[in-house]
Amino acid sequence: MTDDLPYRYDVEVVGLLAAPEHRWEGRPDAALADGGVDRRDLLEVRAGHGIEGDRYAGRPAHRDAQVTVIAVEALEALAGELGSGPLDPLATRRNVVLRGAEVEALRGRPFRLDDVLLAGGRPANPCAWLDLALTPGAHRGLRGRAGIRCAARTDGVLRLGPAVLRSAVPLDPARAGEAVRRTART
Predict the structure, then answer these.
(1) Which residues cross the membrane (predicted)?
(2) pTM for this entry
(3) Pick the residue with more confidence: 163 or 131?
(4) Mean pLDDT score of the chain, rounded to an integer?
C-alpha cells in the first residue's frame, strides 16, 4: 500500500475525540456548547464502521464521514487572527487533531495515519455552534479550514503522540493552518 501512498510525513496526533452522543442540536445554546469534551487517548477504528464508541459509528448516513480530521494549526491561526488566546481544538468536535499536516489538501484523497487507511472526503464545514464553543468569529473564521470528513478503509488504532501520515499527494506542512478558498467557476 505504501507504493500508492509515496509521500511520508512525521506528524503528531495532539487530540482524539469519540462522542457517544450528539451534543449540539437545534440553535446554538451557550449552556450546551460549554459541555464536556469526550477526549480519548486512543481511538479504535473499524473499516466501513467508524470509531468505536462514537455517535456516528455504523450509521449509513455517515459512511463517508466516519472520521473527521483537522489541523491544530488552523485553530492556532484562527486564535491569532481573532486575538482570542489559545483555543481547545477538540471543542471543534473533530475526531482527530493533527500537528504538521496540511489536512485540507487531503480532500478527496486516500491517506494513511499510522495503520489506519482513510479516504479523505468532503470538507467538515464549521457550524454556528463554534462561535459559542470556541470563540466569537470561529464559525466564519474556520471556513475552508475546519477539517475533512473521511471514510475508514481499514481497521486500526490511533493514539496520541507521534505518528506517520502517508499520502498520495505531496503536502506542505507550512500551509496546515491556511484556508482552502473556493474559486469562481468561469
Answers:
(1) none
(2) 0.89
(3) 163
(4) 88
